[in-house]
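Open question from group meeting: does this chain pack into something compact, or does most of it stay loose? Before anyone orders reagents, we agreed to write out a predicted structure and look at it together. Recording both the input and the output here so the notebook holds the full record.
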Amino acid sequence: MAGYSGSKDDYLKRLRRVEGQIRGISRMVEEDTYCIDILTQVSAATKALQAVSLGLLEDHVGHCVVDAARESDEAAAAKVQEASAAIARLVRS
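Structure tokens returned:
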């Protein structure tokens, strides 16, 4: 079972909202909207995706990493490394 199962509906709702934001941004570009207005919307969509990412990361640590720690030190170390790599990817993006 995924660590985010309890929040799945919330994540899907947020992602649908982001999807709508992205469609709106595409429409803005098609309509030659002022650059700064488009950038403002890109920033909002980016922040919304970051919020989803942070929530998923928190769920991963709270569920998957904790479960692995209960299993063994090796499993815990592998999950911590996996989470660290995910954090590094998020920070770079």
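Observations to bring back to the group:
The chain has one domain: 5-92.
The two ends are 28 Å apart (CA to CA).
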